[in-house]
Amino acid sequence: MVQLKLRFAKPAEAEQIVDWLHASDYNEYNPDTLNSSSLRIFCSYDDSGPQQYILLNKVLMLDSSAPKPGLDKLVAAQSFRDFTKAALLLASAEGLREVYALDCGGGLDKMAQNNHFKLLGKEVDGKFEPYRVYRITV
Question: Per residue in 10-29, is it b (16+ CB within 10 Å) or e — as a string?
Fold first, then answer.
């Protein structure tokens, strides 16, 4: 197996990157991402040229929630709405284009959809399959 090399994508590759993004079934490409001030695009390449690009972007993540035990669902929904507003304000102030929220089985699904979050995934054999989220700590 040939070892691939990494570099930043070149401005001249912009059209190819967008073409490849549209051709891929393995992403949730949002054209607005290309306007993000935090966007960095890396290229994996070999002697024959680019093999793959990856868009890296800073995002804001609504992480772990700590509700009071027994918290009323209506109060939890109001809190989530307010946290979402705060996250959007912070993201805007930081120049970030996306806010993510993890649903760990705590009933976030309906609250997220009511607050304009979109569940990320794709149709597989006529059934919607949500994407998995992976984390690595530094």
Answer: eeebeeebeeebeeeeeeee
Token pair of 1, please?
């197996």
Domain of residue 100: give its range: 60-130
Is 33 found in the same domain as 65?
Answer: no
Mark whether 96 and 34 lie in a shared domain: no
| pTM of the entire predicted model | 0.76
Distant-in-sequence, close-in-space partners of 15: CB < 8 Å, separation ≥ 6: none
pLDDT band for position 106 (cuts 50, 70, 90): low
pLDDT at residue 107 greater than cutoff 80: no
Residue 118 CA to its chain's centroid (Å): 10
For residues 129 and 26, give the distance between their C-alpha atoms in angstroms, rounded to a whole number.
12
Task: Flag whether 118 is in a domain.
Answer: yes
Domain count, the chain: 2
